[in-house]
Every structure is written in C-alpha cells, then in structure tokens.
Amino acid sequence: MLRLCIALCVLATCWDCLVSNITVKQDFDRMRYQGTWYAVAKKDPVGLFLLDNVVANFKVEEDGTMTATATGRVIILNNWEMCANMFGTFEDTEDPARFKMKYWGAAAYLQTGCMCRFTIIYYFLCYIIIYIVI
C-alpha cells in the first residue's frame, strides 16, 4: 500500500497543471448555463470569499453579457460570520467555455486574485464541473 501511495505521489508531480492546457467543454452553450447553481463541494483556495452555502444565479442579458449573483456564508475580520450577497459580470475570452468573473461593490475588495472559470464538462440535468483559478 505504501508503494502504491509513493507511486501515485511521483506520478502526481509529473502531471501537467498548466491552466492553458485544461481541456474545456466543446460547443459550450451559455444559454443552458444560466440558472441557479448550488455548490455541493469545493476546495478552499486562499482568497476565495464565499466559504460555504453558496448559491449562484447566472443570467445572460439581452446584450449577450453574462452576469451572476451569489450568496454564501463569509467570515469577516476573522470572527464575524454573516451571509454575503455578491454581484459579478463575466469577461469573455476567445473560448466560450473559458471566462473570467469580476465582482462589483464591496465584494471586489474582499475577493483577491482573478477568478478564472473553465467549464470542463457538464450535464445540465444533474451537474457541472468547474475549475476555478484564483
């Protein structure tokens, strides 16, 4: 068992983790992406503002831009727990399945880094897998 664990660790160090090499969903349809999404599991990277109980609503506006509202539990000043409401817009890239999110208002100051989203695979009736780089 120890040998298997060591072999997996060595293999993991050889894995290509360049964001530009991530294969994304082909034929991405943002109209099907809009709606309400619930975060059921996530890793907590440094700088991610919403901790848990995250519910996001994505909407495609009439001009084609995509916006998002999200609510979730946050801790401010290391001890003040509250529910935060956030608003953001998506910045398009050359690939429709790759987009960046920009928060507005107070959330713009609380979120650190660039939140880049990559839609890897989706089955809209059940789930979506999103890789987020902060």
Describe the 3D structure.
The protein has 134 residues and is of the alpha+beta class. It has one domain: Beta Barrel (Lipocalin), CATH 2.40.128.20. It has 3 helices and 7 strands, in the order H-H-E-E-E-E-E-H-E-E. The protein has helices at residues 2-14, 30-33, 107-110; strands at residues 35-38, 52-60, 66-76, 80-92, 98-104, 115-123, 127-133. Strands 1-2-3-4-5-6-7 form a 7-stranded antiparallel β-sheet. It is globular, with a radius of gyration of 17 Å. The model is unreliable at 8-14 and 118-127 (pLDDT under 50). One of its GO terms (molecular function) is retinol binding. Residues 1-20 form the signal peptide. This is Retinol binding protein 4, plasma. Belongs to the calycin superfamily. Lipocalin family. One of its GO terms (cellular component) is extracellular space.
List the helices and strands and how they pair.
Elements lengths: L1 H13 L15 H4 L1 E4 L13 E9 L5 E11 L3 E13 L5 E7 L2 H4 L4 E9 L3 E7 L1
Antiparallel strand pairs: 1-2, 2-3, 3-4, 4-5, 5-6, 6-7
Write a brief caption for the model.
This protein is an alpha+beta fold. It has helices at residues 2-14, 30-33, 107-110; strands at 35-38, 52-60, 66-76, 80-92, 98-104, 115-123, 127-133.
For this structure, the CATH topology is Lipocalin
Largest sheet: 7 strands, antiparallel
Average residue pLDDT: 67
Computed structural class: alpha+beta
In CATH terms, the superfamily is Calycin beta-barrel core domain
**What is the molecular shape?**
globular
Query: Taking Cα atoms only, what radius of gyration do you get, to the nearest Å?
Result: 17 Å
- The count of DSSP E runs of length 2 or more, i.e. the number of strands, is 7
The CATH architecture assignment turns out to be Beta Barrel
Order of helices and strands: HHEEEEEHEE
What distance separates the N and C termini? 34 Å
Count the domains.
1
- Helix-residue proportion: 10-25%
Beta-sheet strand percentage?
A: 35-45%
